[in-house]
Design goal:
Rossmann fold; 2 domains; 6-stranded parallel β-sheet
């Protein structure tokens, strides 16, 4: 009977396990290549240009600084303000970044398929659109508010105006949750909130007059229902007549007559959005952790008005460093 020569015993039998190490190595190499591929993320702009494009610039710059982790694609809305479902399917996006109100409304129609991160949205507008934060805990929706954290705002007022005791704020009917958060933050900093709610837009001027009469300082907050070009002018004129400083939420507010503003530029908001994206990409889990207040901010002073009101302004750099610690409510 024939037998295999010494050293070759069993060579004629199939031994598939011999290829197992090779197959494992090939699988690991394929997984590594797949992991290295940029993650597709779509950006939806409410419109081109202005603050929307500035936000995109900040987003892109921060992502580019991190390498090829994320691949951005800008999607356009159609004439009816809708997103193409076919474009979403083809793109296989892990996240939609919606810049502005119109883009957010369109993106929310697809949140079951793709999570949505909204930016450049006031807190009251988000609440009117999707409800309070505690109802949005499924990880499919997140937002970076335009509003500054209440604690940061009150710490700013306390540092800027140490003699102030009463902080006036103008809100619309949708601002009750914001009113509670502002009141709590005011108490933590030894201040009292005096909120005036505009029930009837026709009485806005009268409400502003009453608010200015009983406040040491007025904090203007993002509320598109009550703060517009006309009401902002009424607010600034009424406050100046009574020698009451106004704290605004943009550089434009300072140019119009506010004493100071605490704000986050669109590029800074874009930068924070990029960091949220990079964090999710690193975790490999596209689950939004909640609603965010701006992490990065700037301070602007109206020095001419400060001299007129005889207010001594602190050093901007020292004040900014002091303010960085006041973000206890950065994530809701």
């Amino acid at each position: 009977m024939w037998q295999p020569a010494a050293g070759t015993r069993g060579c004629g039998r199939p031994r598939p396990w011999r290829w197992l190490p090779v197959l494992v190595l090939l699988w690991l190499a394929a997984a590594a290549v797949s992991a290295a591929e940029p993650v597709p993320v779509a950006v939806v702009l409410s419109k081109a240009g202005g603050i929307h494009t500035e936000t995109l610039v900040g987003l892109r710059r921060r992502l580019e600084a991190a390498g090829d982790t994320v691949r951005l694609r800008v999607l356009a809305l159609d004439e009816a303000g809708r997103l193409s479902r076919a474009a979403l399917v083809r793109g296989r996006f892990r996240l939609l970044v919606a810049v502005g109100s119109r883009a957010t409304q369109a993106a929310l129609q697809h949140r079951r398929e793709v999570p949505v991160l909204s930016v450049l949205m006031p807190e009251v507008a988000v609440a009117a659109l999707v409800g309070p934060p505690d109802r949005q805990d499924d990880g499919r929706f997140g937002v970076i508010y335009l509003d500054q954290p209440p604690d940061r705002q009150m710490a700013f007022i306390r540092r800027l105006l140490p003699g102030a005791r009463t902080v006036g704020v103008l809100l619309g009917r949708q601002g009750q949750a914001k009113r509670r958060r502002l009141a709590q933050a005011a108490r933590r900093h030894g201040l009292e909130l005096r909120a005036a709610v505009v029930e009837d837009p026709a009485r806005t001027a009268a409400v502003i007059q009453d608010l200015a009469s009983g406040s040491d300082v007025i904090l203007a907050v993002y509320d598109p229902v009550v703060i517009n070009a006309r009401s902002a002018r009424w607010l600034l004129v009424s406050a100046y007549q009574k020698q009451i400083p106004v704290i605004g939420f943009s550089r434009a507010f300072v140019r119009a007559g506010a004493l100071a503003s605490l704000y986050s530029s669109p590029r800074l908001v874009g930068r924070q959005a990029a960091e949220i994206i990079l964090d999710m990409a690193a975790r490999g889990r596209w689950h939004l952790r909640g609603h965010y207040y701006p992490r990065y901010f700037s301070v602007e002073f109206n020095r001419r008005l400060a001299r007129a009101l005889r207010i001594r302004l602190p050093d901007e750099e020292q004040l900014s460093r002091h303010m960085e610690g006041y973000v206890p409510d950065a994530v809701l």
